[in-house]
Amino acid sequence: MPAFESTQFTAWLLQALCSAFLAILFLQSGLDKVIDWKGNLGWLTGHFAKSPLRSVVPLMLGVITLMELTAGALSAAGLVALIATGSATLAFWGALVSAVSLVSLFFGQRMAKDYAGAGGLVPYFLLSLAAIYFTRLG
Fold first, then answer.
1. Fewer C-beta within 10 Å: the chain N or C terminus?
2. What is the dihedral of CA 76, 77, 79, 82, to 10 degrees?
3. Exposed / middle / buried, residue 105 (Cβ in 10 Å: 0-12, 13-18, 19+)
4. Is 20's pLDDT higher than 90?
5. d(Cα 37, Cα 2) in Å, to the nearest integer?
């Protein structure tokens, strides 16, 4: 961690806060899918019942669960690395997997014609893009 008085502190702080947020977001979401797989599968089966994706809901749930857990774990590891070593590499990869996960979720919501749900993902996507940018600073 850079000294508070240094010019690098602000960039480090943005990296750390974005990593913490993405870690919480995706670990909670991914773990919820693991813990309540049956409930999530039932809800998503109904959600996608009238979409072209209806036949691949179990596969999609498995893929998005893996993506979310990976995004959350990389973001959490990135936060630890930022604190311990100052390296933002893992935080960058966490932000990148987060952005890809959100694009996947956005695609699903649009295919299900859940436009409000898709719109609700936009702030998270913008945060993940900011995190990608911030983790590439110096």
1. C
2. 180
3. buried
4. yes
5. 42
